[in-house]
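Follow-up to my post from last week.
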Amino acid sequence: MKHRYELPLYSFYDHTGMTTHLEEMAQRGWLLDKMGGVLWHYRKVEPQRLRFALVYFPEVTGFEPTKPEGHSRMEDLCAGTGWQLAATAGKFQIYYNEDPDPVELETDPMTQVQVIHRTMKKNFLPSYAILAVMSVLQLVMQVTSLTRDFGLQYSGKVYYLSGVSWAMIPIWSALLLVYLMELGKYLLWYRRAKKRAEEGLMTPSSNSRWVQTLAIFLLVGVLVTWMGSGTMTRMIYLTLLVLLGTMVISVLASKLMKWMQVTARVNQIVTMGLAVIFAFIAIHTMAMSVIRNDRSQEQEIGSLPLRLEDLGHSTTENRVHMEVQGTPLITRTYCLHRPDRPQTTPELEYIIADVHAKFLWNTCVEDFLKNGAQSVDAAPWQADSAWRVNNRFSSEEFVYVLTWGDRLVWLDLEIEPTDAQKTIIAEKLKP
Amino acid sequence: MPREKFQTLTEQMFYILLCLREECCGMDIMERVKAFTGGRVTVGPGTLYHLLDQFCENGMIEETRVEGRRRSYLLTLKGHAALSGEVRRMAAQLEDYTRAFEKEGAK
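User reply:
Got it. Predicted complex:
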């Protein structure tokens, strides 16, 4: 094996972490050769002790059509000092030296701290701050939506605990944690490094690898868990596809404009614009596909576990709606059977909640009974327990909450069911 | 309150400016600083690159010649003033030091 790729898990400012790692790799016979957008490439060399150092370039954007003038000037200054260029990654270059005790690349602590801070301020600090604020806003939206009430169909704890919205809470929490840790760690390092630089001392950057590793583990863990839940796989694949597509479009556009010798500023603006437009179109298409999918579900009358015909009603021109969403905690199935004719036929609407997480059982029952309910005889329903729920909108409706094992059902019949109908309902809805 | 840029100079800043009283290119600056200070002060290429950029940006030095990839620089009046200011500051420090120890010796 002559080549090796690696996913570098270092914060942008962590020059100490990167150089220490590269020195260890060189001792194992791997020399950094190229830094791509995602991976680092190493080539096989004789194991040796090398010194590595990083130089940051605050003025470089990474969108320059040709090699930035600063990079060439830096390489010229290094010529004759023993420092050789290992690889370039836009805003920084990595050099190595075979001399075990060379003149350091950076010899003035104050200049080094100022340069790193200027580079961070131009790009990473604003991005991380924006992402952290977005994560907080998302979390606030998701958490407050748990307490809002738009009726059981589109709100309530069962709805959120079984849906994509709730799935986003751990993802946004994990992201917020990572952004805050990154920002906090950098600002602490900067404060300390600035103070020490006034005393003429260099400050190694704090180890950032564990934060990055934690971030990857959290995100992969959350994704695997939610993909395992089945019902949201399509949405997660689509989201990943949008992210991947945005990245590919950005890289291709930027490379094309570099090849066309477009200025760095124009390249940066056009690339970012294209990424935003692509993401917008992709998200819009995703939303439309979900809506189309919902409409197509309206045609599938056979998929309903319980239909008006089962209860002895004859119907034509049916409107049927069925929605299934699930997480490892709860799987929720919402069903609506609304016939247009005859107009006297009642509507049938029900929610089946299969509660996989036992500790959420009482929460779910309370959610379904939150408008008030009276316990009724469960025997005709062959259920463990049964309630008649007070309907907020009409006292003439017959709304029941029934339980069978881990299954909880909210059922709106509009007319009082007979014992025979109760038996049929039990047969159809029992797990 | 943040300190004004280049109000005080670090050793590296001081010796780079001092070397540029005569036209000089980047590589030569590193060698001259080392020779001037007998190896006590060294300027690394990374530090030199950033300081040359910042001095140019602040009008303390100017680029005089570009021969291929070799760039030469020269101290400007503003740079000279910064250097003189730093020397006066250090001289005042030395004076304070001497006066303090003279007083102690007189006791």
